[in-house]
# Entry
Amino acid sequence: MPAAPINRAALIACLSLLVACSPQAADSTGDVAANAVTQPAAADTIDAAVTPDADEPDAVATLADTPDEEQQVRAAAGCSVPDDVAFVQDIRIYCGMPADVQAFIERENSCQHFAGEEPYDDARRRELEAAIARFCDDREKIFADLVARHRDDCAIRQALIGVNLRYDLSPDLDLKPCKG
# Structure
């Protein structure tokens, strides 16, 4: 009997719900995290996405509600965003980031995708384990290196703060927005 196809969007949405319902998300973001799962980010431009409003953190990664919405977000991004970058917030900031941050965003989106997949048999489990090792291993260290490398660029720092909130990468980094 052939295996049923996996709906990537549904799996990522489920993963987003799990993140939103985690005790840490509930403690740190309250209702914002729950609303972020069903509501797209407020930012409509790259500049707004790179420097998010401190009152409305983009705490949970969300997919576009429709293919048309995703197409609009990709068209407004300002460059060609790889298909591996699936989360709306990441699509919005991608083009304004340097190559090393873009590479990390691609890698993290792949990590989230494979981490949300179901290992329906042994072969798929092995495939997922290899993909998770490739895309998820050392993600916190890579992220910390990016933060250190770009610590003096406020726009990149703000974008990295959003990435850290969405993917709970390095809570111990104590990332603070730039002053003034």
